[in-house]
Amino acid sequence: MDTVTPEQRSKIMSRIRSRDTKPELLVRRMLFANGYRFRVCDRRIVGHPDIVIPRCRALIEVRGCFWHRHGWTWNGRKLVQETICRDASSSPASNRGFWQEKFRRNVRRDAEHERQWAEEGWNLIVVWACALKPSVREKTFRFIRRTLEKWREKPTAPHVSP
Ligand SMILES: [Zn+2]
Q: Cα separation of 149 and 5, whole Å?
């Protein structure tokens, strides 16, 4: 039974959201240490992607699994889970409608941005927060570096995700 007031809930939500920015810092630090120069949250690009690396014509989105529903896609009618991420497998038991609507909006918005970025010729890496946990972080970073390296030489490729 969930007995959180709206005020408490919004406090919890903002805490979760700000924790979600930490993974982005990890990626930015790694890029910087490897000599990549980038812009952050570029207002000139639709959706204000987290990281823009002009030299590779690349965008990097670092997404929190819970809010952005890692593994779920919109099939035109509802969200369906295609791959299992534990961090996105549950949703709060109360206010089901509210959460479902919120998740649905996030997933559809992300998909719409991806479509527009592809149209504008951006390469995209979506890094899910769970891929930045200590046990898998280095592997993810290697993937990002390898992918950017490829794009730097030949800056056109489909969207990928580690
Ligand atoms: Zn995940």
A: 48
